Amino acid sequence: MAPTTPPVPAAQPASGPPPPSPSTSTVTVLPGIIPPRGRSAILAHKPPPQGDPHHWAGAAGSITELDALPVEPLPPELLDLTRATDTAPSGSTAAAAPAGRSSRNAPPLAGTGTGPAPVHHSLIAVAAPSLAISAEDGRLPGTGLDGFYDAGRRVLARCELHLAGQEPTPLQGRMTGAGESRFVAALAGPRETGPDPVLTVERLRSAEGTERITVRNSSLRLVRLPLELRLGTDLAELGEIAAGRAGPPLPATVHGSGLAWTSDGLRATVTAEPAPDVSLAAGGLLRWVWELEPGAGRTVQLRISLSRSGPGARKTGRTRPPQPWFAAAAEADDPRIGALFRTSLDDLAGLLLRDETRPSRTYLAAGVPWRCAFSPAESLRAARMLLPLGTRLAAGTLHTLARGQATHGPDVGRLPGPLRHAGPHSGPSCTGLEATLLFPVVLAEAYRWGLPLRDVEQLLPAAEACLRWLLRAGYECGYVPDPVPEGPYRCETQAQAHRAALLGADLLDSLNRSGADELRSWAAESRRMFRQEFWWDEGGRPVGLWDEDGRPSTHLGSVVAELLDGGLVGAGLQAECLLDHVQTAQLARLLAGPTMDSGWGLRTLASAEPGYNPFGYRSGVVRVQDTATAVAGLLDAGFEREARSLLHGVIDAAETFGNRLPEMYAAEQRTEGSAPLPHPTACRPSALAAAGVVRMLTAVAGIRPDVPAQTVRVRPAASAPLGAVQFTGLSVAEAPFAVRINRLGAGMVEQAADGLRLGG
Prior knowledge:
Layout: H1 39-44, E1 55-58, E2 61-64, E3 123-127, E4 130-134, E5 140-141, E6 147-150, E7 153-156, E8 158-163, E9 169-177, E10 180-188, E11 197-206, E12 210-217, E13 223-232, H2 238-242, E14 253-255, E15 258-263, E16 266-273, E17 278-280, E18 285-292, E19 297-308, E20 329-332, H3 335-350, E21 352-355, E22 358-367, E23 371-374, H4 376-385, H5 392-402, E24 419-420, E25 429-430, H6 431-449, H7 453-473, E26 489-490, H8 491-510, H9 516-533, E27 535-536, E28 541-542, E29 545-546, E30 552-553, E31 568-569, E32 573-574, H10 581-592, E33 622-623, H11 624-637, H12 640-656, E34 664-665, H13 687-699, E35 703-706, E36 711-714, E37 725-732, E38 735-741, E39 747-751, E40 757-758
Parallel strand pairs: 36-40
Antiparallel strand pairs: 1-2, 3-4, 4-6, 5-8, 6-7, 8-13, 9-10, 10-11, 11-12, 12-19, 13-18, 14-15, 15-16, 16-19, 17-18, 20-37, 21-22, 22-23, 24-25, 26-29, 27-28, 29-30, 31-32, 33-34, 35-36, 37-38, 38-39
Helix pairs in contact: 3-13, 4-5, 4-6, 4-13, 6-7, 6-8, 7-8, 8-9, 10-12, 11-12, 11-13
């Protein structure tokens, strides 16, 4: 009997493209796998139907989970690319297949009008939720994805520049920071002046809605020239534009020293300083006539804004959230380390969003351009990886999530989140379940890093509700199904649940709350069962999942790195992991092997597995956050050689991406002289990629604080995989923390909070 098909993902927020349509799971049964004891209990267990679907309204949109719809799987031998897909394009409100329609059509292809357009060559400036997307030449011709955006709407699509009736020749485009790009072009003079450019044009384009255009005269003559800008927009949604369904250009009106466009309660305005000599609504023309002395230059600055009528009306150009961390930096023997650390922090600052109800609280958008909004699981995971920079980001993320927690019905205590694609060998998994299991972990670890007690006490009831939900979900058989209640039972979900139980118990004990004993008892039984039932002895690897019909899948993927992540508990120690020492050693060898280590980082699916695709999100690509989890876990377990290979692979890959790592890139095997291939629709910058860099680099220092006990342990990697390195501006106990690691792997704390003792 074929396994029960998991639910179809609910409609995604307009801020990002939907995942590919899931297909029925293909499960390989291998010799030596015996259905685990208690499996009949799993299959016989029929929890009561879920209550009304819970709806969560957050600061940046809404996420809804809906009842399951049947999905007809695409036959594995057929990939029909000639048919239209039922999966709605990015930004659509109909991402889920309507009842009665099949989702067996091929997944959308970038650039075909059925999916997100390629952005791997784009320069994307971000000051979330505002973006400026540009081609490398800096031109904004009003086509493709290029333009200025605010909260998913294109405010300005066209900004074509002409000097004396000519378009300057593009010379260079580059990012000067996460929020700004710089473009330089040149224009030759009359024939008698020779081939050298006479005029240079610099365009500084900011995500916050400004463009500064400077023209310089490099000749020895006075130059008189007209400068013309032709502007236009469609005020279309990003998702519609990506799908090739942008609207027609809107008619302009003259507005003060610029132009304006209006549609559906939205008003885009462009104002110029100085004011143009001529403004024509027809054609969207602004015109200046300039005289430039030899060596002189002149500048015009455009301010682009969007206003909305009705409640909540606002404009772009609002103040950016303050960075919730100190001015952190890294210096190392390898100069790339400092540049990568600095660029990652710059990207993270650009992705910061304010909690609309409490502007002092911040959290991270998942990534741009597709997910420039709050994503519970990803934002929470990124905040956890950034705890070495301080606890304020974690606090803001936790407070924002706690408001959306279910407070009644069978899902009480659970956090919201849609389903997501989980690869070719499994149905979709639930991001809300991951967030629920992460919540108490992040709170417990933030407490150890120095989260103020008042925040801990405010957030503790939400964490306790998550833990009670965990015990209910895993009560029948010791495992947590994902998604609930049908399953399957994934190894990474069990690792997350086990970690949540142990860190939750540690937190409850520290605060003199009840419930710790029950959590530890459940974790101990889960650990005992997992080591027997989730390990394939003949293959020497974890079982990836047990499906809904009790069949095992041993396909090897990057999610198994979760098994190495025990989490931080009191005395600066790591909680016990699900695997024993022998199993951990076997897993370390697998992660460092050629089928998993691409040379550029960890593959999401081993290259020897059926269904491997070097461009597949869960079937092959390198995702930085997975590699970061593996590196940190391997270092904690003492497998430094294996960690070093993965760490240096990502550092080398970052160099080819200008130190701005995308959320994923192709996992083709590294060869001499090769470079990692970009993924055409990856978010870049990405919160998880940038936070993963911080996690990997700081893991080398082995910082393990216990601020309530006023101690910190520093256990650097003995092999010094980064050589000599110094981290400054980190945060322990809400105070700056600096540590230096020498080439021999010895560490020295150079700055710390008063009263903080160095532990053993």
